[in-house]
Every structure is written in C-alpha cells, then in structure tokens.
C-alpha cells in the first residue's frame, strides 16, 4: 500500500513533488496508476531538511487525505530544500489512521518511509520486538509494521558503527541485514504472506531506497528512479537531462509525470545515492 | 458530487445503510459506481430520529473519509431508528472541507441533504442571499451551495403555513418553488453551468427527494428508490418484498447492493413518501 | 491527569453526565476543580451499553477538546443508557494525542478507563509487556500507560476463570492483583515516581472503581461516589435520595454539581457496584 | 477572546514566538494571564513571509489546541522569517471551530488577525455584508466576525488607491475608517454590546496593530509592544536593547516573558511599524 517520492538535488519547492506535476504525489493519493487499488487517502506526511537551522529534518503529517489538506497546499510552495520526502498512506487493514502512524518517521537526523507491508505482521510483532535493542524498542511510538521495520534498520545501523566514515556502505549493510532479519523471522514463524519492503532511508545527504518482495512472489511494488531536472509544462512533468551540477535524483513509487527519463528499479535491488548524487543500483 | 441514502420504515440499524450491504454508503465513499469520479472522501454525515428523546434529529459528521472513521464504524451498529440519513461528500472545488459543510443539515425537526451543485454558485451567491428571509439567512453557518439551497427551501416552506395540516403537499410546493427560484436566478444571471439538485428533505415521518438537472443537460445525478425489506446475505444486499406493515422505503444515489428491487427515479421528478410510507413519484 | 465519570442505574441521557450539571464532565475538561492543573483538553471519550443491540459497549472518541466538539454536543442528548462512561484527557507528557489513546478502552463486553499514571512508565514498559499473555499483548493498540494497565487487568481476569459465576469477586481479585503486579514491577525497577491508579472497569452491569496511589505519596487523585437520582435545577446538579428501584450509582473524579450527596472514596479502596446496584467500598 | 503575537525584524525562528519564551503563544493558549478566561484552545494559526518564494505569506492553521499540535511543534523551530504572525483562538459562542475560522487570514500579500469581537455581530452581519464590495464579500470564506472586519478593512484599503506610494498612511486610513464604519453600524442598530477590535494587519514589511474598544467600555483587550532583541534564558524571555540594525519589533497581546522592555499600547491607539521598523503609536 502507499505511494512515496523522494528528492535529492539543488533546492526545489515541495510543490514540485507534491502538487505540480501531472502524477504528483497528491494525484497518486486519489488516482495511483500502478496499484490495483488507486486510493491512498489515509493520511500523508512530508519531510524536508533545513540544515542551517537543524540537523533533524522537519516533518508535517496529517490524517486528512492529501488532496484536501489546506495546510499541505499552503506549505508546499513555500517549503524549499535540497532533500524532500513525501508519502501518501493506504492504511493496512487493522492499523489505525493516526498522525503518529503517518510516514515519514524521523529518528535523529534520519528520515524513513515504507511502501508495502510485513507479511503476517500481527503474528510476528511480539518476536520482532523481543529482538530489538532498548533504544530501538523505545523509539516506536505508533502501531505500524513500518515503524517496526525502521527499528530493525536502526539496530543494524548501530551495529556497524565501525563504518562511521562510510555511511552509504553502512546504510546498505543495515538495510540488507534488516530485510534478512525480517525474512528469517517470517520463515521461522511459517508465515505465508509475503513482505513488501520498498524502504526509503536518508540522512539528508545520501539515500537508500529498496525494492523488495519475499521470494516466490511477483511483482514487488513499483519503484522508479530518474536523474536530471524536473520540468513542469502545461500540467505534465518531465525529468530532463541537465548539467551535472544541477542534476537531481528523483525516486518515486510512480513517475511523477511523463515516463520518459524514469527507469524502473529492478526487483530486490536498492538504489544508493551518495552525497555527490552519484547513483548506483545494486542487488540486495 | 456526493452520494446519499435515506431510510423510512421499521427501525433498523444505521449499519444497514452504511456498512453492511455490498454497495453500502461507505463503499460508495471510495468506489461509487454511477459517477465518473468514484471518490467521495471529503467527509460524511449521518442523521437519525429518536422521537422519544428529542424532536430534532441526532447528527454525527466528520471531515474524515467515511471508510476510515472509527467513530462511524462504532456508532453504526448501535444506532437504530425508523428514519436514517447518510451522506458522503465530494467537495466542490473551492468549497472548504469542514465539519460544518458536511451534510445532513438540520433545521429544527427537519433534516436535509444534497447531491449535486448549483451552477455558477460563486456568481449567484450574493443575489441568492439577498432574497432570503432573515431567519433563513441567519441559519446558514457554512459555505456550501447546499446550505443555501436549504435556505431557499426553508423560506418556501414558511410561505405555505396555510398547509400546516398537509405537510407532504406543503413540502412539495416548497421544493418545487425553491428549484424554480434557483433556476430563475441562474437564467437571469446568464449562468451556463447547469444545476444538479438531488435534494432530500424529511421531518422524520415523511420525506421528499428530488432528482433534478437544469433543462438541456443530461443526465441528472443518479437516484433510486426501493420498497420492501433489506436482506444482507454473504456481503450483498437485496431489497425484497415483504408484508406491508414491515415494508420500508429506501432512497439512495445508487442501489445499496443488488439492483433487483430498485427503480431509477425519472429525471426532474420527486419521490414523496407519506407518513404511512406510501410512495408517489411525481413530475417537478 | 484526566477526569472521568460513570453511571449505573435506570436509563438516563449521556448529557446528564456530560453537559447538564454545573460541574459536568465538559466543565471539568476546561475547569476541573480538584487538580492543580484545571485543563483536560487532550481529547475525550464516551461509552455506553445498548444491550438489545450488542453486548460490546458503543464508544465515541475524539482528539478535540470536549468543550468544542459539535458531535459530542449532538450525541449527548439523544444517547440513553443504563450504563454510561465518560472521560476527558490531559495527556501525560510524551504520550501522543490520538483517537486511539483516548479512553474508555473496550475489550469485548468490558469498558475501562483510567485517571492517573504509571510511575516511570517509559522505563517499565518493556518488562511490563514481557509479562503479558499474547492475547493481552496483542490487544494493545495505542501507546498509553492506561492501555497497558488494562492489559494486566485483563490477564488477571482471565486467570480467575474459576470465578465465572461470581464476576464482582473475580473483578476485585483482578484489579487488586493488577495493581500489586504494577507496584512490584515499579519497586523492582527502583522507580521513585509513584503510580496513580484510579481505574474504572465495567461489564455494563457491575462496576469496580479504584482509588489508589503508591505508598508514601499523598493524596491519591480525587474520586467520589453518590447514590440516588440526579436533579439538575437552574444549572446546578444534585444527587438526591430516591426510591431504591430508581436509585442510581454515580462515580466521578469530582462531584458533578453540588457536593451534597457525594462521598469521597477513601484512598486505596475500591468501589464495587453489583448488578443489583448495591455498593460496597472495600480496602484494596 | 484570543491572543496574538507578531514580529518584524531580522529573521528569527517561529519557535521564538510560539514555544521558547516563558509566556510564549503556546503558553498563552492554556494559561493566558491578562484575560478573565485563561484558555485559548479552539485552534490556532501561524503565518510567515518567504519573499524569495512567494509574495503571499505562508499560513498553517489547525483546530487542535496549540499546546498539543505535533505539527506546530515540528514546524516552529525550522520556520524562519523576518515577519511572523501567530494566533491562538478562543471561539466566540456560536462561532464554529473550523480550520477556515482560524486566524491569520490571508488576502493576497496581506495577513490579518483579530483579538476581540464585534458587539452584536449576529444582528449586524447582514447589514454589514450589504455594505461590502463584491470582491470583499466573495473573499469571506468562514463565519467569524473577524473575517467580516477584514472585509471592511480591505474595502477601505481599496478606496485609497491614491495613496499607493504611502502604504502605511493608506493602511492607517483603512483601519481607522473600518473601525468607524463598524461603530456607526453598531450605533445605528442600537447594539449595546461593545466591540473589541485589536486588529493586526501587515504586508510583510509594515504593520498596523490597533487596540480599540467601543466608547464607554473599559478596558480594551491588552496589547503590548517591545523593541529590541528577544533573549530566552533559562526558560524566560526578555526583549533587550540592541543595535538599531538588529532591532526588531514585537507586538503581542501579552509580553512573551518578562515585562521589562514591553510597553502597554494606550487604549484606542494604533501601533504603526514602517518598513524601516520605526514605530509610532498614534490615536485612532
């Protein structure tokens, strides 16, 4: 469930992800194209980095559908950043629609969002929590599977403190091991339902976004990446090539407008964006 | 825009309109079948009569989408009445999503709801208000065209106090004259956009529901009526014939389940339900 | 934190607890008299039993302050029951204001609410959860200490299935053992902050309400009980004696109006109301 | 009713008005000192100018009480501007708590807020509206007296287009004439209830803030002005003298911390802040 979008590049307005392009994230909140169910109306959230004021990202969340939230429409054109995240939610059955359950989730200088679900989460939850460090356990404030996935990622991140000067490598290890941990648990508990783990994880300078589905299931939830500059003309959005220093990275559940310039991320791969905005797509 | 449903008959639970049948009003909030746009997620409202406690109907409204409102899901199975109304809203562009703008609207012992729009409402609003009595003017608390339509209906109702002992006839006159007033204004102001006026008006014992569109436009918004008892079996709902004393009247934008037993109301007609639950469909 | 009120007796309207008396629960939401901090504006909830329609109580909750919630004002006069609960919340620092965190909490046919706090909850939470049965663990949907207290009470209730035909005795054991469990944990973990456990627990026919504070701390949060009939005259409310068959039991954090007829519950006692509405106040 | 604060000066964070000082606007939302009723919990709003991105100010409003709104707490420390407005609302009886009724109100590049009430607004409303231009009439989206006051101010502003190059003088005329218009109407309609018109009006560079009450009533709602720099130390806030180029203007219903440095605005005067941040306090 859910749709998300993320941006790293020269500062742009939040509205360029959220309202302006033809398949903006608000458009995906009521008419997503690459899901059987087009509706993602159970709240939304946006996050952005303002490094000159605070290391931790700013975040704004609401349980209103994104399409009718006056505050989002007001904030989007005056919020500008080099690193932006946006998420529209379709709540999994049984998980509450509350502000605290909306993505992105923030932990210190990190922001995280999830599109998908942990197979059999209700059955796995207790064991999953038992395996967490106290810090990761205590940081869980809501009831989503997503926030529990973040807790596992956080613990794996902490486990690799030796890689402090290679954050992208550290993050990849954390993400890979978190997915493996979750899968192992699912198998041990004989859960048949697959996990869908499109996970986006950033420190505001680098980003990792996975596209994962449990083995034997097809396809993973959709995920795309584009490099260049976003041009919005007569309502449609296109990502076009541009000089390297102006070039940005867009990662989104669906192309934000024309598909030209967007590449599908292969299943069970992770997109790694470094601080210089170089992009690598590697197998998980 | 919008979808609504209304019930007059032996007491039933609100859930029988709102959650149980296969095309319940909650289903219509995210997947309406007879509108180009299937989504009615900009709030909802329900009203019901509890005559032993109060003449005025009870009302519960929220700006949450109906499908994810925990309170609605909790109230529906324990709310029981002989007269129920329910409405899911798709806000007209420019009209605020606020609790006060959700239907049904209550005036004394009357409840009212609207599916449609007044053509060129923004241009007509000021003149429309000038023509109102002080009482009807002052009663308008929100910003919808619908509440303005109700104000015109209320004034026309008051104008026919001589018919106090024939309320159904009085209501029909009020509705007919209100529609005529609104149409005359639209024509005078040279508004080309048509009005869609599916209006439901009840005192808890009788009901009038119109299906109207301005001349030259096709079709009016959908409207159906069914008589009998609602049976919900394996998720689908059917209205089936039953003994007269148990027979109820259902009026809804769309059949609540199987189409069997539901009749389309002809365009520019009004369904009139009397206190004995006899039903007449007459031209406007 | 918080204030609550509960009623068992001949059916009355919810408004008789919530809006009508001079110190109604809505009044206590902005001007509580027996707390240092008069404000309980972080959401509210009401629950009531409709046994002819459902065994589980109906519940309506909102994160709006009780004093400005139009739905509460609309529902209160048309909601009538022999067993009513109402709660206004002052969120403990760090605990989210969300609908799911509002009281009363419902588990099957039981309703539960809490006024107070578990000392050092943040530090105790993980161990507290480890001690729960899977059923009680899985039923926790929010993040409050209160819902964790309910989980302990539920487990202790289940442990005394042998007392199935003596529910009031069973409930007293459950409440007493739950408080003892929580206190033992607090002492083991060397938490100095005391627990305040004014707990209300009902099945719609019987009720148990405790007034507890950890040893060495004074005083417990306020709690009162009154027997008779509520009379609201010129804005003030009084509970007056009446014939036994019409006599009701009111239990509330503060008298709902005049103090006459209300008795303070002694500290570390529990008020037990049986199905015949006889009342006993016994030491914990 | 209500409390507000406004800032013009070197860019500061919104949190410096809203959360940091000891009598911040959030503090005033639950514990205002200079009103008989300390509670302003019926929603809030903030506005700020980001001239490099848009002429119109950004605005964020919510019906949650300011003290428990997670979004406000998240936005305040990362929102920085040279011109900030913040308002906490205590709804007048009968006026809906809705997002659209929260202040500040934005019209083009102007922001406006009101602390007070129009005496007898319900009786005056219709005549007041009749006197408005179509543009001012159509811009009213909510139901508050405040938005109607803004409509009168807007019309008077438009009437003085000849003063386009002297905006502060133009604004003063507009404000003075608007107050006179409202007072004349009140007198004509024989309304005895006084009007309280503490009005704040800004284009992001200049500001006018009135302190007015109808003749014969005492006192007007409180209003203060301070010049200098805000220093927050150990929880308290003080405005201290500083070099002219760093000096800011604070105008607020109550001093944001220590009273030192704050001057009460005399009754029936207006504070005029020019683009160079020079301040004049003149009689209305």
Automatic annotation (TrEMBL), chains A, B, C, D:
The keyword Zinc does not apply. PROSITE patterns: GATASE_TYPE_2. Keywords: Glutamine amidotransferase. This is Glutamine amidotransferase type-2 domain-containing protein. SUPFAM superfamilies: N-terminal nucleophile aminohydrolases (Ntn hydrolases). Residues 2-284 form the Glutamine amidotransferase type-2 domain. Pfam families: GATase_4. It comes from Plesiocystis pacifica SIR-1.
